Amino acid sequence: MTKKIARFKKTPDAYVSTTNACKLCKPMGACLAFRGIEGCVPYLHGSQGCATYMRRYTISHFREPMDIASSSLGEKHAVYGGGPNLKKGILNVIDKYGANMVGIATTCLTETIGDDLPMLLQEFHVEMKEAEVTLPILVNVSTPSYSGTHMEGFHATVRAVADQLADQQEPPTGSLPTSFVNLLPGLVSPGDIRHLKDILADFGIASVILPDISDTLDGAPQVEYQKIPPGGTPVAHIRNMGNAAATLEFGRTHILTGDTGGQLLAERFGVPHYPLGMPIGLQECDRFFEALATASNRPIPDKHQQERGRLVDAYVDGHKYISGKKAIVYGEEDLVVAMTSFLSEIGIKPVLCASGGNSGYLQEAIATATGDILSEPPLVEDNVDFYEIADKAKSLEPDLLIGNSKGFALARQLEIPIIRVGFPIHDRFGAQRILHLGYRGTQNLFDQIVNAVIAKKQTDSPVGYSYL
Ligand code: SF4
Question: Do the beta carbons of residue 1 and residue 126 sit within 8 Å?
Answer without folding.
Answer: no
